[in-house]
Amino acid sequence: MGICFKDFTFQYENLKNPTLKNINLDIQTGEKVLIAGPSGSGKSTLAHCLNGLIPHAYKGKHEGELLLNGEKLYGRSLEEVSKSIGTILQDADGQFIALSVGEDVAFAFENDGMAVPQMHEKVGKILANFNMEAFEERSPQNLSGGQKQKVAMAGVMAMNTQILLFDEPLANLDPISGQLAMDTINRLHEETKKTVIVVEHRIEEVLAHGFDRLVVMHKGEILFNGTPDEALRCGVLLENGLREPLYIETLRNCGIDLSKEHHLTQIESLLSHKGEVLHQLAGVVHTKEVPQQSPLVECKDLNFSYAKENGQILKGISFNLYEGEFLAILGNNGAGKSTLLKSLTGFCKLDGGKILYKGEDMTKWSIRKRADVIGYVMQNPNHMITQYMIYDEIAFGLRNFGYDEAAVAARVEEALEKCGLMAYKKWPISSLSFGQKKRVTIASILAMKPKIIVLDEPTAGQDHKNYTEFMNFLMTLKREGITVVMITHDIQLALEYADRAIVLSGGEILQDGTIYDVLANQEVLAKANLKETSISALGELYNIQQKNIFLKQVIEQGRQQVNE
């Protein structure tokens, strides 16, 4: 007994073709299953069919059957579905129903008529699992993206459902918080034997937690349904625009044949390849370091607080930005990363300090004037989108700035092409996935042609193929002299593309240096809730002493493979 899709097809009412095509899938009671696929593959639609958002929130027509324990699930009321399937939505803002964190988590307990003292005790324990007990009285809307995700997860943990469905639960979490979230999901699965279904892009972090099965979707169909080890052996992830674990990628780039390996999800099983890997990396030709020029932007002793009683969010932050560099800003949820970007763009007015652009004090510039220089892409695309159609959204800023329609059309077309959105030019935004909406907001900023682009989690919700294409586009901008500043929890992404990294924790800079030096500093990573990459773990397995050099060798080896 469990979930059963039988020849199931679904087509949204505003689309010509089905998004799900002849899905046949059985998920047994108590299984732990990962569903993965590139953006637009249909995995979120599959999740929405399970949790009742289809057909109640998203209309369309279906064929075939969707059964739960042998009885029809599709078409039941949302109330009925929620008693069996608890869901963590990808967009946490859409899940909150109370004014405080504690009240939101307690919602299920209140519905069950639980006594208040017992309710407080249970809420406290659940929040403690996510290190969020200090935020019990805070409004969910005033939390960072990662903190919101934790609260949403805590709320569903409080529900006593037989199936737990997590739609990209790691999307806004820093690496350590993501690991803790997966540890919590894993522990819940082991203790309760509930069915756990995870829809997620961050495959490496999820697979490390011993999933029973991996289902890979592409263009609305199921292409693979088997064990994670089988998937890594046959390369189905890479073939379908998904990212393999970094250590697997490293071995493939070194010419290692993985087709006969039996335990690829366990890095310890790959010790026998040490000699081959080190031999290949020894021949890597290192790129020359580019000397830094005069700073484009100087940030001097920046201080900021949202409310004095809540303390300083930024505490004496000082750093420089250089023309044509790629800077990653790393750190734990709530470290002040997004606030720092908002201070650069003028959305947050500093309590103290100065920001100089080419030597000119821009601290008192208006947001409008700063927008000529700095383009800001928010973490949540729904906070930026104002138009119904994709074309109009990308054209919105240009039209507000008085560009004629010919210039608007040229820039919009260019942005659509560069962000991989040309096929969706005439689509309504409501038809897009979260990751596709993200690309629309990025395209709307790129159309303005700023000198500096700052992006808050630019690749969250995007598959490997799309984010690789987009990041390569950002690299072309970098080569043209545009400065790129990026907040990211994706350490793989930072390692591959960033020249330099700044690590924040508690509103202060812990380290400012090359990406290799930063990611090899275990002490700093631990303080900032960042995990070592699996390349570093491979280096430890191979007894490498200078991790920063090993990291650089591996990344440059990968780049040379791509260029060849």
UniProtKB/TrEMBL annotation:
What InterPro entries does this protein's entry cite?
AAA+_ATPase, ABC_Co_transporter, ABC_transporter-like_ATP-bd, ABC_transporter-like_CS, ABC_transpr_CbiO/EcfA_su, ECF_ABC_transporter_ATP-bd, P-loop_NTPase
UniProt membrane topology term: Peripheral membrane protein
**SUPFAM superfamilies documented for this protein:** P-loop containing nucleoside triphosphate hydrolases
Q: What would you give as a GO molecular function for this chain, any one?
A: ATP binding
The entry's cellular-component GO terms read: ATP-binding cassette (ABC) transporter complex
Keywords associated with the record? ATP-binding, Cell membrane, Membrane, Nucleotide-binding, Repeat, Translocase, Transport
- Any stretches that span the bilayer, and where are they? none
Q: Name one Pfam family in it.
A: ABC_tran
Q: What is its main location?
A: membrane
- Source domain of life: Bacteria
Entry's localization field: Cell membrane
Keyword Transport applies: yes
Tell me the protein family, please: Belongs to the ABC transporter superfamily.
Describe the task this protein carries out. Probably part of an ABC transporter complex. Responsible for energy coupling to the transport system.
By what name is this protein known? ABC transporter ATP-binding protein
From what organism does this protein derive?
Holtiella tumoricola
